[in-house]
User: Fold Peptide/nickel transport system permease protein from Arthrobacter cupressi.
Amino acid sequence: MRFLIRRFLALGGVLIASSMIVFCALYLAPGSPEQFLVQGRTVSPEVLDAIRAQYSLDDPLPVRYWNWLSGVFTGDMGRSLLTQQDVGALLASRIPTTLSLAAYAAALIIICGIGLGIVAGTRGGVAERIVIFASNLGIAVPTFFAALVLMSVFSVGLGWFPVFGAGEGAVDRVWHLTLPALALSLPSIAVIARITRTAIVEESESEHVLIAVARGLPRRVILWRHTVRNSLLPVTTAVGMHIAGLVAGAFVVEYAFTLDGTGALLVNSVQRKDFAVVQAIALIMVIAFGVVNLLVDLLYTVIDPRVRLKKGA
Assistant:
């Protein structure tokens, strides 16, 4: 319980510090909201003053930050400068698409990345060489290029999957998001497969595994209880980092497959200086990173009880 309390307090501190950095960086960047609102037209100083007063741009930066942060805690993230919609309502219609895409990609990373790494690390030979070659290729291929290749082959060429939209309903959404999730997760699958394979090879040569072999334990027990399980700590760290980055990296795939998610909205909002939307999406990304890191820390204690004992000490 003490460990959980410390982790939640640390997560809260990171969220506050990150939100402060994001908030200040947007206002320090070139350009201003009122310049976007007037669209380059020449307006009187009175009109500019009215715009600044409407959006509280004349308040000191700490006051603006406090007003925004207190609004977030009450569920009020402000209004979009571009559409005049409530930011919470605007994100509510887009977050399910991004979360579905990120969850699908995360499942592919865990299943395919760790699975291929285990195959390469335990079997060796041709299987290991194939996994290494495929992982090198996956790491070298950029996400946008992978998206174009997948669309050309499996959508335009074979017609197996749709090329745009997120679908309606659970089954239709899975069908629509298969290619985007594969394009988003492909580099991470390659990295996780290499890390898993290396961790298993190194663990198989450790002292306790050699002792288990000398004692004549069954190969299945040695493989899963002593080799694979003990090699999962570095793999878990890498998986957590890649999954946490899925929300931030989804905008490329969302643009390529015309998905109505938060990534595409973020790019459009940054270009148009829609501060309230950018701040809200950035805060969501920070929360995603913090939550995933917290889950990784908790998973450590499940994989290796020694970590739990150390935390308790």
Residues 2-92 form one domain. The chain has two domains: 2-92, 95-260. The longest helix spans residues 170-204. DSSP finds 16 helices and no strands in the chain.
